[in-house]
């Protein structure tokens, strides 16, 4: 049988030939339609370009996009997305951006970089990165920024498509995409307008000057007078010190000691039974120690000692009591449980009111949120001043709108999914 016998007929092994051709097509990069492979290559390219920018020009500082630069950039970005959507028929890359084959790699890269940010120590604004790469300042890290620009472009284009082809049942998905776009874009561009300033308030003295991130003095239309600094501390704790190393004796991975709460009367600390005789104050107690070995040990010269033990403060030194020749009983520094400032706040408009500024419980006045930030740590609860942080974020309401849209979209998709499950499935006729 010659080759002419197959003229005009199908080849003898069509399945094998088709399989080979498909494999050859799949091995060709950038042959349309693009797949997940091209999407991950695009993400890798953005990361590499970001690293080159990081090494060439350094991290991106968002303060260059302060108002009105950020709103102008936002308008240009939205116009660029709109133009790209209009030209989607002529530009295949735009159509690819609107597909799940581009969204999945973008989400994967964004998740990985976000996890890296979460597991690495991040420095505060105004500080340089801790290492040469720059991942300790991820919000200024070029690969992170380019990846989120990529993801926001995908979300924005999909939202435009849903707006142009609006359907009521697609409203939850549209709300989710719009909310995510607003959160990502407003959260980044709006950070340039966020201001953090610190005010050092001395007791009884009104203060209206603050220090910005560059330690420049700025006058505010708000004055604060500290009337009283409040600190609540955890119960004092007695610890046993090794005289040779001057370090706490460890037992089961923790410093050997006793917590002197309100119910404490006596307790075992190593080979000594510690009995509380009298509380001379919040930071000093009178105790007795009796030799009461829990394990075989050399009997000390004195098996009963009494004395004062205190952690000390800025007015008096700490007091300790010897336990034999190799151990000392001391009181650890008191740990703050809560600290706050009782203040009077005065504004330029004539408002005058009292408030208590607590940690994580700010007071809002004239667009500023005032947080309890720090105090004179050397004086502790006797601190003569309080450090307050003034934070203004004009874009925060916009971010809250985005979060609200995200939540509304999630709830809407949940109800739509539940309604679809309740709908009976139409029976198909048998053929």
Overview of the structural elements:
This protein has 431 residues and is an alpha+beta fold. The protein folds into three domains: 26-193, no CATH class; 197-232 and 337-392, Sandwich (Tick-borne Encephalitis virus Glycoprotein, domain 1); 235-334, no CATH class. It has helices spanning 14-27, 36-57, 69-86, 92-97, 100-119, 142-164, 171-189, 396-422, and strands spanning 195-202, 206-211, 217-233, 237-242, 250-251, 254-255, 257-259, 266-269, 272-279, 284-291, 304-310, 321-323, 327-331, 336-347, 352-358, 363-365, 368-375, 385-392. The protein is elongated and about 95 Å long. The protein starts with 13 loop residues before the first helix and ends in a 9-residue tail after the last helix.
Keywords:
single chain, 431 residues, elongated, disordered C terminus, 35% helix, alpha+beta
Report the order of strands and helices.
Answer: HHHHHHHEEEEEEEEEEEEEEEEEEH
- The side-by-side strand order for the widest beta sheet comes to 1-18-17-16
Number of domains: 3
Report low-confidence residues grouped into runs of 5 or more: 1-9, 425-431
What Rg is obtained from the alpha carbons, in whole angstroms?
34 Å
User: Overall pLDDT, averaged?
Assistant: 85
Cα(first) to Cα(last) distance is: 43 Å
Largest sheet: 4 strands, antiparallel
Report the portion of residues in β strands. Answer: 25-35%
Number of strands: 18
Helix content: 25-40%
Return the structural class: alpha+beta
| Global shape | elongated
Number of helices, where a helix is a run of at least 4 consecutive DSSP H or I residues: 8
């Amino acid at each position: 049988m010659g080759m002419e016998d197959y003229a005009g007929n199908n080849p003898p092994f069509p399945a094998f030939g088709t399989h080979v051709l498909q494999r050859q097509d799949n091995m060709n990069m950038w042959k349309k339609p693009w797949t997940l492979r091209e999407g991950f290559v695009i993400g890798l390219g953005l990361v590499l370009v970001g690293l080159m920018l990081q090494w060439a020009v350094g991290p991106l500082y968002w303060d260059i996009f302060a108002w009105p630069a950020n709103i102008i950039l936002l308008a240009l970005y939205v116009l660029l997305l709109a133009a790209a959507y209009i030209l989607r028929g002529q530009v295949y890359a735009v159509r690819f951006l609107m597909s799940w084959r581009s969204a999945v790699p973008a989400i994967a890269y964004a998740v990985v970089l976000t996890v890296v940010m979460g597991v690495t120590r991040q420095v505060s604004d105004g500080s340089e990165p801790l290492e040469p790469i720059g991942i300790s300042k991820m919000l200024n890290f070029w690969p992170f920024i380019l990846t989120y620009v990529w993801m926001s472009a995908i979300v924005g284009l999909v939202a435009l498509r849903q707006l142009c082809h609006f359907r009521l049942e697609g409203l939850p998905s549209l709300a989710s995409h719009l909310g995510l776009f607003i959160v990502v874009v407003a959260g980044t561009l709006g950070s340039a307008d966020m201001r953090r300033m610190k005010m050092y308030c001395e007791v009884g003295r009104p203060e209206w000057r603050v220090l910005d991130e560059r330690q420049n003095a700025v006058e505010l239309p708000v004055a604060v007078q500290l009337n009283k600094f409040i600190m609540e501390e955890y119960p004092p704790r007695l610890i046993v010190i090794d005289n040779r190393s001057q370090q706490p004796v460890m037992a089961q991975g923790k410093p050997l000691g006793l917590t002197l709460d309100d119910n404490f009367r006596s307790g075992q600390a190593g080979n000594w039974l510690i009995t509380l005789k009298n509380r001379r104050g919040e930071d000093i107690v009178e105790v007795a120690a009796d030799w009461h070995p829990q394990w075989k040990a050399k009997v000390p010269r004195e098996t009963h000692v009494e004395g004062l033990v205190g952690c000390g403060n800025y007015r008096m030194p700490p007091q300790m009591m010897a336990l034999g020749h190799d151990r000392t009983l001391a009181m650890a520094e008191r740990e703050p449980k809560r600290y706050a400032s009782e203040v009077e706040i005065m504004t330029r408009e004539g408002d005058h009111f009292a408030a208590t500024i607590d940690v994580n419980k700010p007071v809002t006045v004239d667009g500023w949120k005032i947080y309890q930030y720090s105090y004179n740590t050397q004086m502790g609860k006797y601190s003569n001043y309080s450090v307050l942080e003034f934070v203004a974020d004009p874009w925060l309401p916009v971010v809250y709108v985005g979060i609200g849209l995200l939540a509304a979209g999630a709830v809407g998709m949940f109800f739509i999914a539940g309604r679809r499950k309740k709908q009976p499935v139409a029976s198909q006729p048998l053929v």
